[in-house]
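Cont'd.
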Amino acid sequence: MTVEAGLGDDARGGDGQDGNGQERTQLRIFDATLLPDSPPADSFYRHRVGLFYALSSTWRNREVIWALAERDVRASYKQAALGMGWALLSPVLQIGLFTLLFDHIKTFHVKGVPYAIYAYAGLMCWTYFAGSLSAGGNSIVGNIALLNKTQFPRECFPLAQMLEQALYTVIGLIPLGILMGYLGFAPHIQILWGAPLCIAVELLFGIGLTLLFAASVVYVRDLVQVTSIITSLGLFATPVIWPLNKIQHVTFGPFHNVDFRPFYAFFNPLAPVIDSVRNTMLLGREPDWLLLGIGAVSALLYFVIGYTVFKRLEVGFADIS
Amino acid sequence: MPTSADGSIQVEHLWKRFRADRGRPTLNDQLVKIGKRVTGKERDFRWVLKEINMEVPPGGTMGLIGINGSGKSTLLKIINQTMYQTAGRCQTYGRIGALLEVRGGIHPLLTGRENIYMYGTILGLSRKQISARFDTIVDFAEVGDAIDRQVKYFSSGMQVRLGFSIAAHLDVDILLIDEVLAVGDANFQQKCLRRISEVVAGGTTLLFVSHDLAAVEATCENAMWLTEAVVRAAGTTREVLAQYRGSIEEHAALVSSDEPGVRVLKVEVEGADGGPATSAQDAVAHLVLSAPKAGKAKFVIGVSQGTAMPIFVLRHERAFPAGDFDLRCALENLPVPQGHYSLWLAMYDSDDQSNLHSWRPVGSFDVHGPVAVRPPQGVMVLSPVYVNATWDLS
């Protein structure tokens, strides 16, 4: 029996012997009073996870993301009498209201496209983003029990919420199809290549901001309120009910006839995304490449910053919650 | 540095601290805190683990013991990679499976079947693997036909069993267990222990946190004893447990010694041959008592599990001297299964029936031996037991 301080090489010496396992496990008693107050400064743990490593391990855990999403969908489906019906009802009601309110405002109109369809296309893009942000933003604080037991990458929680929202958005396409059939409006073929581009930009932006909020909410719970402000005001600040070219010629204060769209596209990549969806699907045109490009660069920035911040902050998730 | 095969755990110079104050996170507090951090004066944390060194070889078994709040669960969480250390190194090689408060992963709104698939996937199994072992999981959980019922209609015991059963059927190289056996009935506990031994026999590394010392002794080769964030002792389970028990008895003696009347100086229960107490073998309860004056008293000794009523009680009347004396009570065929028990003592004055020592637990001991068998329905577990005893006082 030996008495040892916790520190020092002796403390591990007995264990490190490559004996046959019989002799090395003699009892070791430690004296806590010999320990320093804090660990040596150079031994502090620095949590650094590279973006590409994080992405690849998330990809390896895609089944987990799927299971988390499926679990939530099944559970909420069981609880609600209307089940999936809610995914249909909510956009229909909103579009009904928007059409009622804004259909007669002629400056919101685009030639050849019924306003209801025009607004619906914008609303789909917006609802997906807003749903992701509010559900994904709460996903870390809401899953503490699981977080403490499982090792898969923490971003799986918000990403699972985004997957769930994607399902609801796809379901929301059904009323859009019905609406198009009813109004006799056929979507243009350009959407086939326009949609993947737009979805990619929207996903980058959505993931970036959702991860940023999901991680920050753990530390500052007040941010939950911020997400609800973003989702309620953003509906009107984003060109959902109005066309993006409304801010093409802005005269305000010192500005005279300034094109605000590039600045706005950088700040809010959803604006060029919605604009491009409308250009390709509803008008059969090419997207405004400059604006979409600015949006794509900005979305990539949001993504990298959001993801990096998330990986930095994840170190304290289990401590704080 | 030894080369590490799958399943080893290496913890080196590991430290962990928590923020001590978790008050309202108001803006004002946050600003003050940020100010302190900037000026390098942040002191509002406390260390919950200090300088932990541990190495578990592939296939090794390690028990973590210590009183509540000593840092066992935090260490487990760090090894499980759900929490990160503040300083030091923690390396694990291979897939980790954790059995920690197993009910949390089960969704009450889903059926048992859905839960097995969802939770199994979340814990890292593929659907194919789950399908292959689905029946085994259901059998083990003993939920039977209820498997297609929503889990919220399960009894709490069934929920726990289901969660444990899923987690116990993963293919892992390292298994972490934290006090999950405290739930469930005795029968299920034994089944879990058997399952754990099976997994360990298959070459899985085991890290076991428990207050059930007999279970630790039964499953772990090595043990580590944590007190207040630091390692107090490490070594083979037998040696570490001996240290741990010694400290607890010291503590118990200190507590009971500040009452007037007869004092208990030492409590020991061991086998008649001097080894550990074993079921259905003869055992000796040995107490060292100290009386302020000589007299004659009725001695009552009882054995209980936990804080429950004693399983059996023994009585004896005899004269005792002033000062320290030994009381030995030889118990024939110790009629209790493997487990952790408390020894109770009371002393009543034979003349005026006054309390010389009030009826309370004075010490605890472990019994080795066969596991408890489940009694048939309608049979009380804590039925009165008659035990033949021989008393001796010196």
